[in-house]
Amino acid sequence: MRNLLLILIVIPTWFFHSSFFLADDPDFPEKKVAKVINRIWKDKSVEIQRYNIEDAYGGGKYFMLTDEADTLGYLYVGRVNSCRQGGCAINNEDAELPFEFFDYFLITDKNAKVEKIKIFNYQATHGHEVMSTGWLRQFKGYGGERKLKYGKDIEAISGATISAKALNLDVQFIVGNLKDNY
Questions:
Q1: How far apart are CA 143 and CA 146, in angstroms?
Q2: Do residues 83 and 124 lie in contact, with contact meaning Cβ atoms separated by under 8 Å?
Q3: Cα–Cα distance list, 156 to 42, 43, 83, 149, 151 (Å)
Q4: How many CA atoms lie within 13 A of 103 on its CB side?
Q5: How many CB atoms lie within 10 A of CB 111?
Q6: What is residue 19's predicted lDDT score, i.e. its pLDDT?
Q7: Quick one: pLDDT at residue 95?
Q8: Is the distance from CB of 61 to CB of 25 less than 8 angstroms?
Q9: What are phi and psi of 114, to 5 degrees?
Q10: Which has the minimum average pLDDT: 5-14, 47-56, 82-91?
Q11: Contact (Cβ atoms closer than 8 angstroms) between residue 56 and residue 77
Q12: pLDDT digits over 102-124, tens only?
């Protein structure tokens, strides 16, 4: 009886606190972001300020990167949904099932051209290849001038098609949103 009571308390508590099942806003990875910012703007004292942009799409967080009065660039921290939990073959219209996801941040220059993308929390069961620094480097310099075609402009990844396509679309949306609002 005691074990049953323990199970009835522990499992719902774990389920409630598990980020795999609750896809809320991603945590802000301050140390990782600061490290990347320091590599990009070595001689600057960069401040991170919340930047309020209407984002009908995702719910990620936008920030302005400044040095005194100058805008250096922008930071976006967000979440990309990939397959439904349980596999990609599951019907995506089933609203009861949560998505697998990954969290990432994107840093741009002041003209909204991508400087760096880093995936910091990958919860999906497949497609880990999108975390590769070499693959993510393809987005550097992208400024929304054109659509990025997966498989042509952005290298396709076998085994990570859904995650790679989802990130490709998200980057295009975020850069476009920044360009429309800076």
A1: 8
A2: yes
A3: 33, 36, 17, 10, 5
A4: 19
A5: 13
A6: 32
A7: 55
A8: yes
A9: -60, 130
A10: 5-14
A11: no
A12: 899 999 999 999 999 999 998 77
How is the chain split into domains, by residue range? 23-181
Indicate the SS3 state at residue 19: coil
Residues in the chain, overall count: 182
In 3D, which of 147, 171, 150 has the Cα closest to residue 161? Answer: 150
**Cα–Cα distance measured from residue 61 to residue 178, given in angstroms and rounded to the nearest whole number:** 12
The tokens for 103 are 């969290």
Distance in angstroms (rounded) separating the CA atoms of residues 136 and 138: 5
* Residue 71 burial (10 A CB sphere; 0-12, 13-18, 19+): middle
DSSP 8-state assignment for residue 44: S
How many distinct helices (H) and strands (E) make up the chain? 4, 5
In the chain, which residue ranges form alpha helices assigned H by DSSP?
A: 2-17, 30-40, 133-136, 161-181
Bridge partner residues of 152 (DSSP): none
Tell me how far apart the alpha carbons of residues 21 and 33 are, in angstroms, rounded to a whole number. 25
Which of 138, 143, 148 has its CA nearest to residue 182? 143
125, 96, 120, 98: which is closest to 107 by C-alpha?
120
Q: Cβ contacts of residue 149 below 8 Å, gap of 6+? A: none
First-to-final CA distance of the chain: 61
